């Protein structure tokens, strides 16, 4: 029996490209993927569960974990820390389960430094005009903020070279199908399978 470790998949891309929508649709299908649960210092909200919605930590605990390099990435938003715990990801992968992380570009670059064996997927807008429309249609941002986000998106698109795959999010279902194909092909990669077979042959 081939004892295969799971793979960490990172879906990333500019703000407004539809990362969350693609992830939700992917998880609505029958999938063995495990969603990477983030860690946060913000207070638990009614209806949330520790270890399901987030891993909740005090500021002190979180800062200790940063020092011990126990986070694959982290960021601070409005006085609260958010991050991806290394231990949870590594333990889940060791069980042979794939872990899926949906994250901003800056966070993905941190993960790449800390966990380069991950598979990095860049979700790309069909065009910058389309990205602008998506940000504007959210109706939550002022014109200045929209321009800032677009400027940021241009910068993030230039970071595409750091990724293994690029998926254009023209239609959600198409994008999801491409992500599924990437997951499948990664499991079929010769070097992953060769390692497992070597172990079997050595054990004979």
Keyphrases for this structure?
5-stranded parallel β-sheet, globular, alpha/beta, 9 strands, 47% helix, 4-stranded mixed β-sheet, Guanylate Kinase phosphate binding domain, 204 residues
Count of β-strands: 9
Shape: globular
Distance between the termini: 12 Å
Question: Which CATH class of the largest domain is shown?
Answer: Alpha Beta
- What is the subunit organization of this protein? single chain
The low-confidence runs, each spanning 5 or more residues with pLDDT under 50, are none
How big is the Rg? 18 Å
Share of residues in strands: 15-25%
- The overall pLDDT, averaged over residues, is 89
Query: Which series of helices and strands comes N to C?
Result: EHEEEHEEHEHEHHEHH
Strand order of the largest sheet: 2-7-1-8-9
**CATH level 4 superfamily of the largest domain:** P-loop containing nucleotide triphosphate hydrolases
Structural domain count: 2
Total helices: the number is 8
* Major beta-sheet overview: 5 strands, parallel
CATH topology of the largest domain: Rossmann fold
Give the second-level CATH assignment, the architecture of the largest domain.
3-Layer(aba) Sandwich
GO molecular function: ATP binding; GMP kinase activity
Keywords: ATP-binding, Cytoplasm, Kinase, Nucleotide-binding, Transferase
Catalytic activity: GMP + ATP = GDP + ADP
GO cellular component, one term: cytosol
């Amino acid at each position: 029996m081939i004892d295969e470790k799971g793979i960490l998949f990172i879906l990333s891309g500019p703000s407004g490209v539809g990362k969350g929508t693609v992830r939700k649709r992917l998880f609505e299908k029958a999938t063995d993927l495990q969603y990477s649960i983030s860690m946060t210092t913000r207070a638990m909200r009614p209806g949330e569960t520790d270890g399901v919605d987030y891993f909740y930590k005090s500021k002190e605990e979180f800062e200790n974990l940063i020092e011990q390099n126990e986070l694959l990435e982290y960021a601070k938003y409005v006085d609260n820390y958010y991050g991806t715990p290394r231990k949870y990801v590594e333990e889940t992968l060791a069980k042979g389960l794939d872990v899926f992380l949906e994250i901003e570009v800056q966070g993905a670059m941190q993960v790449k430094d800390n966990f380069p064996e991950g598979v990095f997927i860049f979700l790309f807008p069909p065009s910058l005009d389309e990205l602008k429309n998506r940000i504007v249609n959210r109706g939550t941002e002022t014109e200045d903020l929209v321009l800032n986000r677009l400027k940021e998106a241009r910068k993030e698109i230039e970071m595409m070279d750091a990724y293994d795959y690029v998926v254009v999010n023209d239609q959600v279902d198409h994008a999801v199908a491409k992500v599924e194909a990437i997951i499948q092909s990664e499991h079929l990669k010769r070097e992953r399978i060769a390692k497992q077979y070597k172990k079997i042959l050595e054990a004979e």
